[in-house]
Design brief:
Strand content: 15-25%
CATH architecture of the largest domain: 3-Layer(aba) Sandwich
Largest sheet: 9 strands, mixed
Structural class: alpha/beta
Number of strands: 13
Oligomer: single chain
Low-confidence stretches: none
Number of helices: 9
Shape: globular
Distance between the termini: 34 Å
Mean pLDDT: 94
Length: 268
């Protein structure tokens, strides 16, 4: 079933009446517009303000992202929110960092992969070391498909065999081949934050795990809905997995404002 456009908050009111309520969101393409250079991305001031207001109303906000933890915290700028970064490899909970078991050994492998792949810069690929993983961005490449093929060829190495490969919006990522992703992160955060209802928002194929986790949590008695953020690059499988859609980052800002009003706050 394809996700339905969300133009009114009424379909979500039963969920939003649950307490404690969790608001779990991706960052890039959801709270922050997609830009040419990943390091230039920034969460919109309105999104940040709305998240802070939601937290003051008792909503348990968590950011679930592929970004490294330090980068995610800088982008969002809300220290007392919960974070699952690096696709569930790093967490920020209760004011401290937690790492998924078994990830430490991947740091040396990441250094080797980055060193061996520097030639990709010549075809417009930007290599982002995430400490425990690597992202190859080809949004600025003159020939996107040629750059994608070059990346896949470059990561066919012995070091890369220890990683799982995933693809997103003009990016290929290597992540430690351990059971950690946005789906496992969603379930872990739902338990740690003790939520009784959960609203998840994401824009990319990497958010599919988060959407699937919402369905799994329903089986455990935790009501939830998944909202897909539309763009010109929207993946059909993401739309099939979501319950509702909103249009771009502005649509997310609208959604956050409506959620705020529904839980008793005043939207700026």
């Amino acid at each position: 079933m394809k996700a339905l456009p969300l133009t009114d908050i009424d379909p979500l009111r039963p969920l939003l009446s649950r307490r404690p309520l969790g608001l779990f969101s991706d960052i890039d393409g959801t709270l922050s517009p997609i830009v040419e250079r990943p390091e230039d991305a920034a969460v919109t001031p309105r999104s940040r303000s709305l998240l802070e207001r939601l937290m003051r109303e008792g909503v348990r906000v968590a950011l679930i992202t592929g970004r490294p933890l330090a980068t995610a915290q800088t982008m969002v700028g809300i220290d007392n929110a919960a974070y699952a970064a690096n696709h569930g490899l790093e967490y920020w909970l209760d004011g401290r960092v937690e790492l998924t078991e078994g990830v430490e050994r991947y740091a040396a492998l990441v250094e080797r992969i980055v060193s061996d792949a520097t030639h990709l810069e010549a075809v417009g690929v930007q290599i982002e070391s995430k400490g425990l993983g690597v992202a190859f961005h080809y949004r600025r490449a003159p020939d996107a498909e040629a750059a994608r093929v070059a990346i896949l060829q470059a990561i066919d190495s012995s070091a890369a065999q220890h990683f799982a490969i995933s693809e997103g919006r003009k990016v290929i990522e290597l992540r430690p081949d351990i059971p950690a992703n946005k789906g496992t992160a969603t379930c872990i955060l739902a338990e740690r934050l003790a939520v009784n209802g959960i609203l998840c928002v994401g824009d990319d194929r990497t958010d599919l795990g988060m959407f699937q986790a919402v369905k799994n949590l329903r089986d455990w008695g935790i009501e939830g809905s998944a909202v897909a953020v539309l763009s010109s690059e929207s993946a059909t499988d993401l739309l099939a997995a979501g319950d509702y859609t909103v249009e771009g980052v502005q649509g997310v800002e609208w959604l956050l404002g409506e959620v705020l009003k529904a839980v008793g706050g005043t939207s700026p």
